[in-house]
Amino acid sequence: MEQKPISKAVIARLPRYYRHLSELMEEGVERISSNELSLRMKVTASQIRQDLNNFGGFGQQGYGYNVKYLYTEIAKIMGVDRQHNLIIIGAGNLGQAIANYANFERRGFLIKGMFDINPRLIGRVVRGAEIMGVENLEKFIVDHEVQIAALTIPKTKAPEIADRLVAAGIKAIWNFAHTDLVVPDDVVVENVHLSESLMRLSYRVCSIQDEKERRERAQDGGTSGAGKGERRQQP
Ligand code: NAI
């Protein structure tokens, strides 16, 4: 069936559907209605129907969604039914933490090797992935048909390494370095910034706190003084 283009917003929600469907399969659930899925995922049933309609409407009236079918289709759409060979550049704290996470393999992401400039790290093996010197980078990418590179190096080093990765044929960069990379149009970059996520959390928790204090002040006629949220000194 020919598929219409799926919006970025829907694509961004697919991993969450995928995770819930995976859990449902583990629980032995074979089918689920949009209402049940809605309760579980805490999004509206109409949102679910709208999202899943993008893929030709897997649901059937009165039957609901076939969990395994939906899971398989979403896996195909996200490309996690295929194998992706991945390397990690920067075998420090973060690089090793990623290499130590076994679940990526279950999603089809195989960590083929790691690269670093620190001679003390070179030669070590993290969960089967050897840490090599960056001088071998280009050859390794070609020999092992590597598609994806995770960048877990300091931001000052990231642009130069990104250029080398692109020249060697890398098609996707999972960028943890705190810098915006400039790459050709046929190379995709996914930025992951935990600190940005934490700042969004900070905004939400502060908004709740501010709102609570505003209500308390309004209730006692504005006599309770300044907010309790302590301000820290800016660096
Ligand atoms: P780390 O210092 O433990 O590891 C960095 C590694 O990169 C070191 O082993 C170093 O030898 C290696 N390296 C430096 N230049 C290199 C190059 N040109 N080629 C290959 N390897 C090179 O640091 P950590 O904690 O693992 O953080 C790594 C990077 O990730 C930092 O830039 C940090 O700011 C960033 N980071 C990003 C996060 C995010 O959410 N995006 C979260 C945590 C860290």
Radius of gyration: 23 Å
Q: Into which percentage range does the β-strand content fall? A: 15-25%
Strand order of the largest sheet: 5-6-4-3-7-8-9
Helix-strand makeup class: alpha/beta
Major sheet description? 7 strands, mixed
User: Helix coverage percent of residues?
Assistant: 40-55%
Q: What is the count of DSSP helices, taking H or I runs of 4+ residues?
A: 9
The total beta strand count reads: 9
Structure report:
It is a single chain. With 235 residues, the chain is α/β, with parallel strands linked by helices. It contains nine helices and nine strands. The strands form two sheets. The chain has a seven-stranded mixed sheet with strand order 5-6-4-3-7-8-9, with helices on both faces. A two-stranded antiparallel ribbon has the order 1-2. The radius of gyration is 23 Å and the shape is globular. Bound molecules: 1,4-dihydronicotinamide adenine dinucleotide (NAI). 1,4-dihydronicotinamide adenine dinucleotide (NAI) binds next to helix 5, strand 4 and helix 9.
